[in-house]
UniProtKB/TrEMBL annotation, chain A:
<dbReference type="Pfam" id="PF13183">
    <property type="entry name" value="Fer4_8"/>
</dbReference>
<feature type="domain" description="4Fe-4S ferredoxin-type">
    <location>
        <begin position="151"/>
        <end position="181"/>
    </location>
</feature>
<comment type="similarity">
    <text>Belongs to the succinate dehydrogenase/fumarate reductase iron-sulfur protein family.</text>
</comment>
<dbReference type="InterPro" id="IPR036010">
    <property type="entry name" value="2Fe-2S_ferredoxin-like_sf"/>
</dbReference>
<dbReference type="GO" id="GO:0022904">
    <property type="term" value="P:respiratory electron transport chain"/>
</dbReference>
<dbReference type="Pfam" id="PF13085">
    <property type="entry name" value="Fer2_3"/>
</dbReference>
<dbReference type="InterPro" id="IPR009051">
    <property type="entry name" value="Helical_ferredxn"/>
</dbReference>
<dbReference type="InterPro" id="IPR017896">
    <property type="entry name" value="4Fe4S_Fe-S-bd"/>
</dbReference>
<dbReference type="GO" id="GO:0051537">
    <property type="term" value="F:2 iron, 2 sulfur cluster binding"/>
</dbReference>
Automatic annotation (TrEMBL), chain B:
<dbReference type="InterPro" id="IPR011138">
    <property type="entry name" value="Cytochrome_b-558"/>
</dbReference>
<feature type="transmembrane region" description="Helical">
    <location>
        <begin position="55"/>
        <end position="80"/>
    </location>
</feature>
<feature type="transmembrane region" description="Helical">
    <location>
        <begin position="158"/>
        <end position="176"/>
    </location>
</feature>
<dbReference type="GO" id="GO:0016020">
    <property type="term" value="C:membrane"/>
</dbReference>
<feature type="transmembrane region" description="Helical">
    <location>
        <begin position="101"/>
        <end position="122"/>
    </location>
</feature>
<protein>
    <submittedName>
        <fullName>Succinate dehydrogenase / fumarate reductase cytochrome b subunit</fullName>
    </submittedName>
</protein>
<dbReference type="InterPro" id="IPR034804">
    <property type="entry name" value="SQR/QFR_C/D"/>
</dbReference>
<keyword id="KW-0812">Transmembrane</keyword>
<keyword id="KW-0472">Membrane</keyword>
Amino acid sequence: MNLTLKIWRQKDANAKGGIVTYQLGGVEPDMSFLEMLDVLNQDLIDKGEEPVVFDHDCREGICGTCSLQINGEPHGPDRLITTCQLHMRMFKDGDTIVIEPFRAKAFPVIKDLIVDRSSFERIQQAGGYVSVNTSGNTQDANAILVPKDKADTAFDAATCIGCGACVAACKNASAMLFTSAKVSQLALLPQGEVEADRRVLAMVEQMDKEGFGNCTNTGACEIECPKGISLENIARMNREYLRASTK
Amino acid sequence: MSGILKSSIARKVVMALSGLFLVLFLLQHFLINFTSVFSATTFNEVSHFMGSNFFVQFLLQPILILGVIIHFVLGFVLEYNNRKARVKKYVRFNGSANSTWMSRNMIWTGLVVLAFLVLHFYDFWFPEIIHKYIQVHPEDPTRYYGETVAKFTDPVRTLLYVISFIFLSLHLLHGFSSSFQSVGWHEKFYKGMRGATVAFSILIPLGFIFIAVYHYFNQV
Ligand code: HEM
Ligand code: SF4
Ligand code: FES
């Protein structure tokens, strides 16, 4: 395959940045999207140019590190996948592909296609934990019974890998899907009940403080989420928040 | 008030509740207007009641106006905050891949509805207020039908009303079901909710269009 790549290049956080166009040949349909970028980078290195900087780690869809807005969608046109799981067979010979960093005020660009997603970590730190008695008499976790349906719903919420595609897809750059998944995975379990009220208030407050936009229920996040995190979690967080703030 | 409105979720909930309140008002308004199609007498009776009842005039009407103001002011705040949340725009943004046009353009459909409200107040509300409270005419309970119908002799006004109701429909197609999600009712647990809101959002504006067009053709 021969492709035209339009890639956002930005020297550092303060540079203005802009789209640079590259022609790339010899792309195999079985390559992953990141492997295609590896080929481009090898070309650039051979020519003595600066390679394109992009985030990745596991390359098997579990860590959430790879990002990229591809042709206007986070992780590209396929569903329920991360960018490392996107294959070039989704594209045609001769295609033009626009590759940009995830855009949000709360995700500032560090360089080229890498953004700083530590705002997610600060939301998590604000309340995404449970208290555990470490006095030496710690109760066995399995001693607390959890109904199967609750356990399943909590597990589904816990599959969020914190990739930020929800924010990137949202026209409002809202982090409600991520935050609601992190609130839900604990709110649904008896272990999470102790801090339930404090947690939802603190995490939402941090989310607002980071400068994410406000949800308008467009549902773009749910569709673009590689883990299929449901909007149901946002409804749950809204309920939790209302309950906690009217106490 | 301003304290709780610092939180994005609290604002969302107020937005949703004010929207739902306006939806209820819309239904009530439609039912009254619809009587004008089949009975001038009924329309006059109900309008006379609404126009002269103390409770309606001095309690419900101010609440309604406040509801509208809260709703669109919060709409502007929401839009402003959301624009601020993505300072640098995408070169390419494929919104239609993952969301409806209605959900992405609430501010525009809302603005058209707001512009319509200005026209609607100019047409009906200000003349009423002047008639009743400034010029203080003696009340004639049979005047409403004629006054209302006369407005729809004008093809331009009729057309503007029709266009506005189409935008109202687009606004509600997203807004009505969205407001349930905002207050924490996900559609998965309320079967039929989506269908009911979609039906309402199409049928009620269509009904308003019918009334306007009916009066236009009924007198030309
Ligand atoms: C009779 C008139 C109106 C009705 C019945 C109505 C109804 C609604 C409803 C039910 C919602 C959903 C609330 C939510 O999801 O939280 C909504 C949202 C919204 N409305 Fe209205 N509205 C009306 C007029 C307006 C006006 C005049 C504006 C002014 C610009 C406006 C702007 C908005 C905006 C920006 C949203 C938020 C979008 C979202 O959350 O998805 N609306 N409206
Ligand atoms: S909710 Fe989905 S899209 Fe958002 S961070 Fe978690 S896994 Fe990524
Ligand atoms: S690199 Fe780990 S999910 Fe893509």
